[in-house]
Each structure stands twice: as C-alpha cells, then as structure tokens.
Amino acid sequence: MDATPRTKLVLVRHGQTDSNAAGRFQGQQDVPLNRIGRSQADALAERLVRLKAARIVTSDLLRARATADAIATASGVGVSVDERLREIDVGSWQGRTSVEVAAENPWFEEALHSGRDFRRSETGETAAEAGERVAAVLHELAEAHPRETTFVVGHGLALRVGMCLFLGLGLDASFAISGLWNCSWTILDHNERWRLQSYNNVVVGHSGPLASPSSR
Length: 216
Hints:
Elements: E1 7-13, H1 18-22, H2 35-48, E2 55-58, H3 62-75, E3 79-81, H4 98-104, H5 108-114, H6 127-144, E4 149-154, H7 156-166, H8 171-176, E5 185-191, E6 193-201
Parallel strand pairs: 1-4, 2-3, 2-4
Antiparallel strand pairs: 1-5, 5-6
Pfam families: His_Phos_1
InterPro entries: His_Pase_superF_clade-1 (IPR013078), His_PPase_superfam (IPR029033), PG/BPGM_mutase_AS (IPR001345), PGM_Phosphatase (IPR050275)
Keywords: Glycolysis, Isomerase
C-alpha cells in the first residue's frame, strides 16, 4: 500500500446566514453567520481536526472568514485570505429572492432549470466567470503545496463550479450535481490524477439549506 502523503484540497462552504434562511441572493454582500451558522461552524471545526490541515485559505467575506476562523481555532493553523474565492457577483439581484428576480426576468426559471449559464443581473457575473477564478486558486494551491492538505473556505456556487472546472469535468457537470449544504466539506485528492474523494459531507444534525442552483 502506498503510504506517500497525497495532495488534498478540502473545500468548505460557509455556515448559514439569515439571507440563506430567507432564500435571498447574497452574492458578494458581506452577510455574517447567524446563530445556526456559528453552531454549524463550531461543529464542523471539531470534525475536521482529524484531516490535519496544513493551512486554511478563505474568501474575505464575513460568512466565510468566520467559518475559517472556527476551523483555525480548532486545528491550530493559520488563515490566509484570497478575494478570488468570493461568491458569484449577483449585481443588482443582491438581497432579492428568486421569486422577485423571476417576476422581472421571464427567462430566469427556464435558464435556471435547464442548466444554462447566464449573467446574474446586468452588473453581475456568470457561473463560468466565478468558477474560473476559484479554479485558478485551486490550481495554484495544489501546485504550491504538494503532498499537503489545504482547506479552502468559500461559497456554494463558486466552489461547486470551480471544483468541476479544476477537475476538468466542465461547466455542465456543475449544473448536474446538487448544491452544497451550509458548512459542508468536499475532499479532492491527488494520486497520479485528481479525484473527487467525497462530496457535500455534513455533520449530522448541523446541515443547513441547500444552495440554489443559481446561488444565494
């Protein structure tokens, strides 16, 4: 059996916020964790200690940073920030619900359910644009820290799309898999090639609402 340490990337979605609970698009709005989200982050942090992170890299948004800080406190490792890990920019949809957005954009529901990428408002990003910047971070971390475990804390849509692009699965694959739960973790590891070891794991009793396919 090969005992050589493997390169691992552990992707963590932030804990619940009030906007998550209300079904509102957050995008890059700096919304903090709510009480449930803080509890989720603490439970997750205790669970992930066993993975022995060498470092934690996080989005700079409050909800991700607070989740990363909880993991860092439990694991005793440092946290660095990379703004490229932010959630997809939803522009003028920020703070609105899917119902409100659909009422003003008749094409929205069809695009959402057909798996077609689209720009989140005239001033926002596409899923591909958000995923490409996250995938770039994953490639850089994997190359810079071989045979170590790096935690990457971010957001539902951006992490999901970024992961699929990083693995070479393409954008369509990101629309075919479930959204990430609040405070879920996903493990990618490398042994000659990258593989998805596990996806969307949660601490039992501490899961939150699923991310919308268009991201909130």
